[in-house]
Amino acid sequence: MALKTIVKPKKQNSAVSPNIFAGQLVQPTEEAVQTALGQSCVLWKQLIDELKRELKLDGEDWHSSGAKYGWALRLQKKRRNIVYLGPRAGSFVAAFVLGDKALTVARNSKLPACVLKEIAEAKRYGEGTPVRIEVSKAEDIDPIKVLARIKVEN
User: Fold this and answer.
1) How far is residue 104 from each of residues 138, 149, 154, measured CA to CA in Å?
2) Are 94 and 143 in contact (CB under 8 A)?
3) Is the pLDDT of residue 13 over 80?
4) Which pTM was predicted?
5) How far is residue 11's CA from residue 101's CA, in Å, rounded to a whole number?
6) Distance CA 124, CA 109 (A)
7) Could you give the strand order of the β-sheet that contains 72-77, starting from the edge strand earlier in sequence?
């Protein structure tokens, strides 16, 4: 009698690539970030500059929830977290935690279909609904700026 072995496929966490600084206990240097981002470093700097200028963001600091998760640059307005930018190999992720009001506005906005799908499929947590957008090309910047504005205004 033959035994049948059922192999379950590995569950993927998400479509977002892993943080390049996962496993590191110390904050990354600017040089390490530039090296990790590669060509997307230009987009990283552009996004930070534009968000600070257009939305009057007044704070930034590096944050880690633990070595397992890596490091993210947290942009703030009046000590309120607006967006987390997490470096990846050759790209980066902009992550938001949207409250109910911001979520309603985002759902009714003219964001790209892929972003609206991410919002629709996101699980709601006590602190809000997480939305993550991977940035690897210039077209990825505008939806992030829209979500940041929505977050600031709501």
Assistant:
1) 26, 14, 10
2) no
3) no
4) 0.87
5) 32
6) 19
7) 59-63, 72-77, 80-87, 92-98, 129-135
Q: How far is CA 27 from CA 55, 69, 101, 139, 145, in A?
A: 26, 12, 33, 29, 25
Are residues 18 and 70 in contact, defined by beta-carbon separation less than 8 angstroms? yes
**Residues with Cβ < 8 Å from 20, sequence gap 6 or more?**
36, 70, 87, 88, 89
Asked if 59 and 75 touch (Cβ cutoff 8 Å), the reply is yes
Please, which pLDDT band fits residue 15 given cuts at 50, 70 and 90? low
Distance CA 72, CA 66 (A): 11
CATH of 30-153 given 3.10.20, 3.90.550, 3.90.1150, 1.10.287: 3.90.1150
